[in-house]
């Protein structure tokens, strides 16, 4: 976090806006003469320089605690800055299997963190939560983020024995950061080869009707995959043609090396073991937990 080099003027137009699952505005972004301004509704304003090498807290809302500001910086601002620095980042959660890193991609509320927590509870370490940074070097590799997963209280209660002691993430949300000692000990220290990307679709409850015994995993058309990956990309300046071109070329190379499929998830935590079994079967991985030596 740096200090502002000058006063940032109020922008006339915002070039980017993101929303919460319920539709409420979450973040606005706009360019200014020294870089970019990111405003998180009523909570904080951050300024980023053009190179993405400095983030400055310009203003904090009266109710924003240190935990809130830390969450905004780590989970919201930094993914945008990574994209600005040329590091591809996707709105996704990732776990490690014996076949490599398995990525769950989807919009807010799709169940990415909850599914990753289900894998982690079964012994498959979580590599990232909600933001996947990718390294391209003779293949595509998932870069470790930080240990722990962010879960809503009901999911945390169902999937983790540590949830009563888990800290709240921010003053405005009912999510907790779950981190067990074994998870921290097994957290990888090096990038892991990316094996597959699943685009999640949440299946609503259907009047009590039974869900299929095995959650459907379906192929996706190339144009659908392009749209899914592009919409999941963290991009601060969506008007920069060079940035868009760079991202599209990255997606093209990614599709040539990593399979992308649609995974339909029945609503409800009770369905997660079946979803996990279907994913492992699709991967061809044995249903065996990944040990520390898998780093």
Overview of the structural elements:
It is a single chain. The chain is an alpha+beta fold and 295 residues long. It has 2 domains: 16-64, no CATH class; 89-294, Rossmann fold (3-Layer(aba) Sandwich). The chain is 26% helix and 29% strand. The strands form 3 sheets. Strands 6, 7, 8, 9, 10, 11, 14, 15 and 16 form a 9-stranded mixed sheet that branches. Strands 1-2-3-4-5 form a 5-stranded antiparallel sheet, covered by helices on one side.
Brief sketch in words of this structure:
The protein is α+β, with helices and mostly antiparallel strands and 295 residues long. The protein is built from 7 helices and 16 strands.
Supply the key terms.
alpha+beta, single chain, five-stranded antiparallel β-sheet, 2 domains, 7 helices, 29% strand, 295 residues
